[in-house]
Amino acid sequence: MTETQVHAPEGAGRHSQLVNDDLAPTTKETATWRTWDLFCLWMTSAHSIASYGFAVGMLALGMTGWQTMLALFAGVLMLWLGSNLVGVAGQKVGVPFPVFARATFGVFGANIPALLRALVAIFWYGIQTYLASTAVIVLILRVSPGLESWTKPSFLGLSALGWIAFLVLWTVQLMIISYGMEIVRKASDFAGPVVWIGMIALAVWIMSEADWSIDLNARAGEALSSGQTVSAFIGVAFLMVAFMAGPLVNYADFARFSPSQKAIRRGNAWGIPFNETAFVVISIIISLATLKVYGEVLSDPVELVAHIDNDAIVIISAVLFAIATVGINVVLNFVSPAYDISNAAPKYISFRTGGIITAVLSIVVLPWKLWANQDFIVYFLGGVGALMGPVFGILVVDYYLVRKQRTEVPELYSGATDGTYFYTRGFNPRALVALLIAGAVSVFVALVPDSASVTALSWPVGAALGAAVMYGLSRKPAQV
């Protein structure tokens, strides 16, 4: 067994198809994720090439630098509130997300939201690995310029050097996850803080290029009217939440290992309002400086690093961006599908096996081609990702308002037809109806063409509608 594996809960033995050591409840011995670890978890979640690109990309909506910072901060506060709701629940019940969802969706129905989350994570896992590999390539070419000839596409749309960098990072991540959640904790503790070295170095360099001054009233897009500014502000705030909607839903995967609710709240407070706000601010400062220096905003920090003449800064920044992206990938896009896939067939698939399946699928989908196809990112990943809002709303309202924070943990592993969470053939019709209705509306809103102000509302609309429908269908509290 890995360090975090425990024995199956009492009463679950005769239903072994619903449990394995990895999906079993946490014990006092395995509750090792304290305030610092959760702080680093959120740091790791925020510090990536994609996160930087997201923050900077919000400038293109037409708001000024300071307005964009304020809007992103509003989103950070909503994310903080949501993380406390999910984190406290996950810590109290002590089980991973797909098992936690069994109380709401049914012991078999939980596979629906879990596999939806896994699907999004698998695609993003491959994409993030590819993005990290681009930082490695910048590093390699700076050290060995003669390898430039290896950067031309050669097989399945990726160059020889691209394949080498991608597979090296792919292997490193697979090795990390193969040792279980305890090594994930240690990797997160390392990856989260170190990226600040690269971000600060990058900020100092670009600010020196900009003569140590930026215009916080500068904007990358067209100037907006007062009404358009309000609309963009609301949109950016909710897009910040939507950007982290996946890890927010499956936060129980990590919160379950915390020894107390106090540690959860402290870790969330330091990791989200404090750290994520700081990361947003430094990202916007860097982008405004690039706007002044180059006349355009560079949304890819790797591209910005490539402009630096100082080899030492290039090497340090490239290494740290690669480390940060590997960290976020393991935390956000590897742990979740590993648990979610294991939950689909616990008797045959362990956490480690689920991780291997995730890693293999991340290559099969050819992520570099997906990243180049923005229609796929917007319509497929955006559409499936929009379902995380309804899942969040349904889970939260069911736990806090319907079941009044009461969960019979052994029953989460019971496949008996008279089990508390067996409902109808293992599926809870109320939760599925709520997901169907709220999900359809959320996806529709997310895919409205040429309307950023409308699509930004997909997460709050889905979450609110999912919660409302679930509560309306569950007027009588579940008997537990």
From TrEMBL:
This is NCS1 family nucleobase:cation symporter-1. Keywords: Membrane, Transmembrane, Transmembrane helix. The chain crosses the membrane at residues 41-62, 69-89, 123-143, 155-178, 190-208, 228-251, 272-294, 314-336, 348-370, 376-402, 431-448, 454-473. It is a multi-pass membrane protein. GO terms for cellular component: plasma membrane. One of its GO terms (molecular function) is nucleobase transmembrane transporter activity. It is found in: Membrane. InterPro entries: Pur-cyt_permease, Uracil/uridine/allantoin_perm. Residues 1-20 are annotated as: Disordered. Belongs to the purine-cytosine permease (2.A.39) family.
